[in-house]
Design a protein that fits this description.
Elements: E1 4-7, H1 11-14, H2 19-27, E2 31-34, H3 35-38, E3 40-46, E4 54-56, H4 62-72, E5 78-83, H5 90-97, E6 102-108, E7 111-117, H6 133-145, E8 150-157, H7 164-171, E9 177-184, E10 187-195, E11 203-204, H8 216-223, E12 228-232, H9 245-255, E13 259-263, E14 266-271, E15 279-281, H10 286-298, E16 304-306, H11 318-329
Parallel strand pairs: 4-5, 11-12, 15-16
Antiparallel strand pairs: 1-3, 2-3, 5-7, 6-7, 8-10, 9-10, 12-14, 13-14
Helix pairs in contact: 2-4, 6-8, 6-10, 8-10
Length: 331
């Protein structure tokens, strides 16, 4: 684009690595500068024409993939973006919905390649956005953990690349009913019915990790109540989210009495454990804050979450929704 831009964000966003997207965009001819040797925001961008790229992403990241595909839409030629593993495919479904031509092929060894060329003008369409399963996950967990609970969540997105948490919960012995399935804007959607039930420990790793990376904090809370040892591995990406999620998930759940050990690429939890109320800290991480809130529902005594205002980053209505559910259930 023919203008100058500066992109920045809050403290957590400015601490996240941006070189994973800056480097490939520079290979496309983008003129980009950032802090810390071009690895952190704020980022300054001098708009200019882009050239196509053939690029293998170092991690399976739908955010990096999407940024490069959007850039490829305006590059002068055909670009090829390859991932080591399939990441969330909302962008590909979005392209299909808008009739944007692209090719998706298996590249061997689990790799997936997407090819896309500049197609000039793009036609707009109305879009209905399904409910976010990452946000629904906290209330799924609440329904499973709080004895006597029954919760119905309407119109939740059930994209196969996003429902890793439902697969894990099935492996943990739960039964969640999926009702009224339909398709909205090329995305599968359904209503979930959840009721409280016993949990069994499980092992999580490998190809499923990109499909539930954001749900791992609330899965950790669920694991504290599961019978046996739950192991999460191959999730080192947790260390470069809004915070080092492994470090702070371990420290805060331990304050509540959880038996959790951090690993380089995940964590180990032994359960079930009776949690106790405590003063905990979100460390500015919205997903950690919401997970601790659900843990507080089953803890004995009062739980106080410091720096909980960060929840508004992804779910401004979380507190009001949780309060309404508690009032209805008369917990």
């Amino acid at each position: 684009q023919s203008f100058f831009s500066i992109l920045t964000g809050d403290d957590s966003l400015r601490s996240r690595p941006m070189d994973r997207i800056i480097e490939p965009l520079r290979l496309m001819g983008a003129d980009i500068y950032g802090r810390s040797n071009n690895s952190r925001a704020p980022i300054a961008i001098i708009g200019q024409s882009l050239k196509p790229i053939s690029y293998l992403t170092p991690v399976a990241s739908a955010q990096v993939k999407t940024a490069l595909l959007f850039a490829a839409m305006y590059a002068e030629g055909k670009s090829e973006i390859t991932e080591n593993r399939q990441s969330r495919d909302h962008t590909e479904r979005f392209f299909e919905y808008l009739s944007i031509d692209f090719q998706r092929t298996e590249a061997g060894g689990g790799k997936v390649k997407i090819s896309l060329s500049n197609q000039g003008n793009y036609k707009a369409r109305d879009i209905i956005v399904a409910g976010d399963i990452s946000s629904a996950a906290y209330f799924i967990a609440a329904g499973l953990l709080v004895k006597g609970s029954e919760i119905t969540i309407v119109d939740v997105g059930l994209n196969p690349t996003r429902i890793g948490i439902l697969e894990v919960l099935q492996n943990m012995g739960t039964e969640i009913e999926v009702l009224e399935q339909k398709v909205l804007a090329n995305e599968p959607v359904g209503t979930l019915f959840i009721k409280s039930q016993a949990l069994a420990a499980t092992e999580i790793g490998g190809a499923i990790i990109p499909r539930l990376i954001d749900e791992l904090p609330i899965i950790a809370v669920l694991a504290t109540q599961a019978e046996g040892r739950t192991i999460v591995k191959d999730a080192a990406e947790l260390r470069v989210k809004e915070t080092d999620r492994i470090t702070y998930l371990v420290s805060e759940l331990r304050k509540m009495g959880a038996k959790i050990e951090g690993q380089a690429d995940g964590f180990i939890i032994d359960g079930p454990t009776s949690l106790r109320g405590a003063v905990v800290d979100s460390h500015g991480d919205h997903r950690l804050a919401m997970s601790l809130a659900i843990a507080g529902l089953i803890a004995k005594g009062e739980t106080i979450i410091q720096n909980a205002e960060c929840i508004s980053i992804s779910y401004p209505q979380f507190e009001a929704t949780l309060k309404r559910i508690i009032e209805q259930a008369q917990i």
